[in-house]
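Translate sequence into structure tokens.
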Amino acid sequence: MFYKKYMKKIILKAFERNVTEKSAKKHRKEGLIPGVLYGQGEENQNISVNYLDFSRVYSKAGENAVVELDILGKSVPALIYDIQHDAMSGNFSHVDFLQVNMKEEVEANIPLEFIGESAAVKANGGVLVKNMDEIEVKCLPANLPSKFEIDISALVTFEDQIKIADIKIPAGVEILGDSDSVIALVEPPRSEAELASLDEKVEVDVTKVGGVVKETPATNESEKK
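Result follows.
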């Protein structure tokens, strides 16, 4: 196993790689994920990581986790910044790592995980509306949250709302979004009249579609007589 976790520290072994289409396919067949390491003014470095080891790290830490990349014995702190998946299998096909300075703040989007059960939905038949699925924060790399849990049990009535200001923010983390922005709410179910109106057929005057005016046939003067 090539990764270890001591407290908050995750170590993932990485290997240098040549960049060609054939080499990328070869790496994948060998159980490796092609990737690139960039940031901090350093030249981009093409690397690969073991598929199973990365999967274990990612399942525990997720994106925005600080990983200590062990490249030829050199430890490089980096964020799991972007992941690509194979369109057919869904497997990891490429991963970008962003090198960071642990003493400098970074900005990152933290995913929201909705938990709990809303009485406005279960008891009153409302529809849960999620206005966002991630929130941008600013903090030191070591303080980056893996996610924010949003408990929708706070939505008891149709008037209730969960806003960014309601999130419990860990020390040292700054949220960059508007604190009054609504994360989630519950809309009341449609009335019978509203549902009936949706079923009604809309009459369209085809003579006015696209600006076309239907011409009225000229009347023959002899017909008037």
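Note: The domain at 108-189 is CATH 2.170.120.20 (RNA Polymerase Alpha Subunit; Chain A, domain 2).
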